[in-house]
Amino acid sequence: MVHSAQLATLTARHRVPTIYAYRENTLAGGLMSYGANFLDAARQLGVYVGRVLKGDKPAELPVQQATKIELVINMKAAKALGLTIPTSLLVAADEVIE
Hints:
The chain is α/β, with parallel strands linked by helices. The protein has one domain. It has five helices and four strands, in the order αβαβαβααβ. It has helices spanning 4-13, 23-27, 38-53, 75-81, 87-92, and strands at residues 19-20, 32-36, 69-74, 95-97. Strand 1 (19-20), helix 2 (23-27) and strand 2 (32-36) form a beta-alpha-beta unit.
């Protein structure tokens, strides 16, 4: 995450289409991301920590996975790479960055 902008710059310079796991990479200039919402995952982690601090045994807590998966597309990056994003993918996206 710390190097999102630098990574986006390098992939654009070398014309490498990239798909990331976090929307922050797409906001920094990457082509697209598909993965868990980082803030939602951090919120779930906080709930778990709270339960442990209140006395629940970690081994007895249920395993959970991300509840919110996002598809984010950066059209500026797509245009810079000379890519046409299919309409069906744009419609399915949670966010399209112009």
